[in-house]
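Lab manual, section 2.4: Encoding a predicted structure.

Procedure: take the sequence of the chain (523 residues), apply the prediction step described in section 2.3, and record the output as structure tokens. A sample record is shown.
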Amino acid sequence: MGEIEPFFMTACSFSVLAVQLPVPAGNTVAALPLLLLVLPVLGALFLAASPSLSEVRSRITGLAFSLTTLVLTLVALVWGMADNGVRFVFSGGAPTVFGAAFSLELSGKAMLFTLLTGIIAPMCLLASWQIGRARFFNLLFLLAQGAALGVFLAQNFFLWFLCWELSLFPAFFLIKIWGGANAGRAAYQFVIYTIGGSAFMLLAFAAVYATAKTLDFATLREMGSIGALEASLARQHGGTASTLVFLGVLLGLAVKVPMFPFHTWLPDTYAAAPTGVSMFLTAIMSKMGLYGFAVLLAPLFPVGLASATPWLIWLALAGIVLGAFAAARQVDIKRMIAYSSVNHLGYCLLALFAVAGASTADVGSAAAARSGFWLQMFNHGLSAAALFFCAGVIERRSGVRGIGDFGGVRKVAPVFAALCGVALFSSLGLPGLNGFVGEFLIFRGVFGFVPWAAAAAAIGLLVTAIFLLTFWQKVFHGPANVRTETISDLTRIEVIALAPVALLMVLFGILPSLLTGILGKLP
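Recorded output:
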């Protein structure tokens, strides 16, 4: 524990000092998005070039490079919220013959997810502090972190898709090598499903490039906003081309979220993955798919999305309701949290589809649904990662993770019970915690457009309350048993990992404007 404290205190110091940095006035800060992307990758390269590094030093090095995302995002947040025209854009030059340019931008929406990555990624490494072969583990994890950041920052499909695909391979090896039972099968299933969806998306964007002669997101969004992209696809490649391209992009993103019925890889993968990887998968990598829905699918294909929303709303509802019922049937804690993620992400999809298919111009409902969409994504990342962390704590101490295997854990581990309780009630949507705000805004927005869908989705809320409270009652209350005696309270390193996230759940529940302000002030 003593080795990590200097780095933790240093990161905190840099975060505090960020508010004292001189703010650049009215210009473009090009280096910052580039540094966000490359520093985790440089950390991975450093670990790869240091085979003699000890286990402890490998862990500290990985954590230090992972924390750079949080520090740089806080610097960008301070500068950006100063409202002086600062933009965070990096451009590597003119597009190539394939329309590809190394272009990065840290916008308000992207900043939400670089901030989430900066919070969750170090937490994942702390959850994996005792894992074997630390140098290789941290190397792969930093590659996955850098690739995920690239998805949030890239402004050209070539770079975006490259980062999208590169995130799969370190995740595959992290699951296969360090996972639990059936890890090999789960890892292959994860990669096959995701690469299969990506193949359709790649073909779709090949058609987009053949039509628009560019892969630049800004240009494609401008064409999409006036319907020119879809019209050009239909005119140049036939009447069904626009629909097929839309479906290709939809499928690639749906598998990543995952959206019902493309979710079947998720429970096995999340259950088999090591704790830190399960946290990263649910908190960050699933958000890559939802982020793609919002910044690619909806702006580029508004007509296709509007036409498909009657069917897509039903699929979102299926994820919400069936995901909740499936979670309620689980006896394995990690599988319960996995199905719960399908349920919670379904609310985000429901909000997006309700606005896209709206036939009326209800500005208030649309604004509520959009805000709820972004807040729910961010807040679910915090609560789901924390719940997987808690499942990992139980499994490391006892060797099992069945909901019925314990009782009375609150008595032997009160600090653990308190922090886990915050995450659990946040996931449940308790008012005063961060999970409530996004769900409330989603229901407010969806009710304005499709009230019957909001009513049906409320079934998911009820079932979620039942299975989460059942988990809370069985594991933390009731009579203790022989396995309960194996549970000790959190170590200092576990408190350092979990307590800040629990505090953020309370803070963002009381002051959600801290998050909505990022969306409102930054472009």
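Check your result against the sample. The mean pLDDT is 86.
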